[in-house]
């Protein structure tokens, strides 16, 4: 059993990390957040209630719940996921993947993580982070991050109803992504203002956040 790290990502920020390598190379980082103040007491014994996301190419990707059969994968500025308290970061490795290629990759992965399939025990944000990390680097996230779900799978009756938490409380509005987003403004999500009444997405509302913008990843059109 590995102990949780009690350090925060220091030194270079995301932009400085990227500037020291080629445009295709990026550090893959796990960002971990507290879901409960009780973590300050329980984390020392390797237990806590956490949210996590994976940082790649200067953006953080997570998985949250909503009521639709559509992508629940979203992006935020690193270490600023609204509603949670940032705890620490864990470097998972480096990959050599252009931003455009990664964008195609994450959009395809979003089709496997619909908002209405989120489940605290079997398919939560930490499961997504672990899956994304494994696909990119071959490395799993530390076991302590999702230990609650493993315990809950065995003893679900011990988990209070109040723990049915998701990373995103609002309904999502999706946006399209093009090569221009990489060249002109790779760190600024494009928010679509147009709606088509015939489209199912007319029912999906734009999230309202306090600390940062949550932008849902639009899965590829079939």
UniProtKB/TrEMBL annotation:
Superkingdom to which the source organism belongs: Eukaryota
Classification of source organism: Eukaryota, Viridiplantae, Streptophyta, Embryophyta, Tracheophyta
Protein name listed in UniProt: Uncharacterized protein
